[in-house]
Amino acid sequence: MEIDVLAENRKIADENHELLKRNGIKSIDVMGSIGSGKTALIERIASEMIKKGKRPAAIAGDVAGQDDYNRFRSLGIPAININTGKECHLDAHLISHALEKLDLESIDFLFIENVGNLVCPADFPLGTDKRLVVISVTEGDDMVRKHPLIFSVADVAALNKIDLVPYLDVDPQRITDDYQKITKNKTLHLISVKTGAGIPDLLKDLEVDF
Fold first, then answer.
1. 3-state secondary structure of 168
2. What's the pTM?
3. Is domain 2-205 in CATH 3.40.50.300, yes or no?
4. 12-45 pLDDT tens trace
5. Fewer beta carbons below 10 Å: N end or C end of the chain?
């Protein structure tokens, strides 16, 4: 049964990807735990896109509430809110229905903020061009080795809030080493959404150009 569920999800994810591609929309699935800075990162990138004349939109996934959705709407961008109830991740079927509610002809980039979790989203691709996982130094230096799957399936990873390192007993190099062991030496981007440090290189790795 689990195999069937995952296979069906992949099928719908492929359909989502084709729909977005036909409409010329690039997309990123932003995964990570609660408090890692996913929403703030999306806000920062989307704001820069708007300044450059790009047309971003966002899908906000949460178990309950619409806090992130409200933040996206406050930027003036199209947004859809998805509450999963008891589910700890978004799936391709939920995204397919969300896409039906968006005017795809009026956007050229889509951010999908997944439910805050480092376990469940790994098995459920949504049909985006890239999958990004965001963690922060405030979560400790064992996050990568405790959750290897999500880092192995993500295309890109970022360690946020590096501006706080001087105030914490955390070693970013240890986190980087763990990540490179799992991913065979891929780059872990050390970033600060607050200061902007590391974000240009992150966007380059995500193939986001604006």
1. coil
2. 0.96
3. yes
4. 999 999 999 999 999 999 999 999 999 999 999 9
5. N
Report the C-alpha gap between 13 and 92 in whole angstroms: 5
Nearest to 189 by CA among 161, 166, 170, 169: 161
Residues whose CB is less than 8 angstroms from the CB of residue 90 and which lie 6 or more positions away in sequence, other chains included = 59, 61, 82, 84, 112, 114, 115, 121, 124, 126
Beta bridge partners of 61: 82
- How many angstroms separate the Cα of 152 from the Cα of each of 30, 42, 128, 147, 172? 15, 22, 16, 9, 18
| 191 close to 199: Cβ distance less than 8 angstroms | yes
- One DSSP character per residue, 79-106 reads EEEEE-TT-SS--HHHHHHHHHTS-GGG
Determine the 3-state secondary structure of 9 from DSSP. helix
Residue type, 122: A
pLDDT tens digits, 85-115: 989 999 999 999 999 999 999 999 999 999 9
Position of tokens 């970022």?
158
Structure tokens at 157: 């990873």
